[in-house]
Write a structure and sequence with these properties.
By secondary structure, this protein is mainly α. The chain has 2 domains: 59 residues, Arc Repressor Mutant, subunit A (Orthogonal Bundle); 31 residues. The chain is 67% helix and 4% strand. A two-stranded antiparallel sheet has the order 1-2. A hairpin with a 6-residue loop joins strand 1 and strand 2. Helix 2 crosses helix 3.
Length: 90
């Protein structure tokens, strides 16, 4: 495949993946290419994986790590507060 076509296909695939819950099969149907090609592009070119229901980057950049840490701390604090409240009733 020529380089321009590859770049165009890569851009369309990125746009399709805005919904991170979309399956590789759905993307392949939208783009009219094989599922194997979609998986290859996602894993090799975009360096992403799908450990659960969402496609996620393999390596997080500094901003993504900061946001993940903040979210984790908020969740930790929320459940800690709930535990304190429920223990008062004991």
């Amino acid at each position: 495949m020529c380089r321009i076509a590859s770049l165009f296909l890569l851009q369309r695939l990125k746009e399709s993946m805005e919904d991170r819950r979309i399956s590789a099969k759905s993307i392949a149907e939208q783009l009219g290419i094989s599922g194997e090609r979609v998986v290859s592009i996602i894993h090799e070119d975009l360096d992403m994986r799908k450990p659960s229901a969402k496609w996620v980057p393999k390596c997080l950049n500094a901003d993504q790590k900061r946001k993940r840490r903040q979210s984790s701390e908020q969740i930790w604090n929320f459940f800690g507060a709930i535990r304190k409240i429920s223990c008062r009733d004991c």
